[in-house]
Design a protein that fits this description.
Blueprint: H1 2-38, E1 63-68, E2 76-84, H2 89-107, E3 132-143, E4 154-165, H3 168-177, H4 179-188, E5 199-205, E6 213-215, E7 222-224
Antiparallel strand pairs: 1-3, 2-4, 2-5, 3-4, 6-7
Helix pairs in contact: 2-4
Amino acid sequence: LHDKCVCGQFLVDNARAILAMAIWGTIGRYMQHIVSWILPAGLRVYAFEAPVDDFGGRLLTGVCLMLEGEQAKPGHIVCNVGHLPTADLEDIRSTVKHSLDIMRELSGSNDGRNHSSDACTRESHPSHVPGFIANVLCVIPENGGGQSYLGVDWCCMRQINLSVWDDQASAGAWYRGSEAHAAVLKEHQGGPGGLRTFGNLLLSMNPLRVAWQRRCRACSAVAEGREADQCPR
């Protein structure tokens, strides 16, 4: 009887998943395109297509943005973890604006527009910044439990930023000459127009060991080692 109950539950769960994903894949995808089209140029909304298990609400969900640079050996990583405990609206706007300004400056783009939304087919547009490999920005809000029709209902927000460089010298040279980074530092000094509740941890990391992997162009199998030249299958 137990096996039959498990099998029945499995079939019910699969039927619910198929129905839910059919609805979400249809409505969510079209609503994403419609709302993004209505928004001003350069802005968009994003709906994740696959369901996730949040452990009954214990896992916070957010959005992650990544800018790609050179294909090089990583030698230096700058990590910045920020926290807005009250989700101050002015601080959120300022923090997000400056984060995107840094992304735009690293990409060498004047308008910040993406040439293609298809990551599998778009051509590579490498950054012009020497030594820059990648920048990853994660924004993780915590919902306040209410509902807002004209904004967001966040009770706090965390921001995690990882900037990967080929060496410390390249990273330091960019940070010293960056107008976007200088604007962020100015707001962190406080005073009129500065950040009011934003606190952050800033640290630099150097990798102790890098394990290289290559991928077979025919079957996408992973081969260990930078000099690997044979498919492992």
